[in-house]
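SEQUENCE, STRUCTURE TOKENS:
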Amino acid sequence: MSPEFAASRDDVDAVAAWTVIRAGRELARRLATELEPMALTPVEFGVLVQLATAEELSQAELARAVGVRPQSMTALVAALGARGLLVRGAEPGRGRLSRLTLTPAGRELLSRAFPVVLASNAWFGPVAVDDDATGADVVASALLPLLGSETPDGSGSASAGTA
């Protein structure tokens, strides 16, 4: 007979990875509500903002940058292209990568959406760690290394155990 599992709510909440997953789902719901008036989803916002920062990307590069499977990116690119928000520019020659770029309409929508998404940093509130740090700074510092990104202060990837 296997032993019974016993854990308190505090024990469950102490599992950082599970807490991040739960919080990520809640944040996605909140952000979807904020972006809905612009007919934009959080993932579509991610596509537009990644293209804006890189100027042009292949569909595979864009999928990696946004964190979706390449198959999902195909539908996203088609939908955003149909709305006139991005274009696919084919490189000359068979088998060459086609590069995706934002259209002026995509840049205009992003210019309205970005401040809304940036305002979501306030959801994290102040923290007592450092007088200059916000909750968003602490969260980003802890999570960006897991995504292979630099910390917000540009100091490079921190180890997974640092915040």
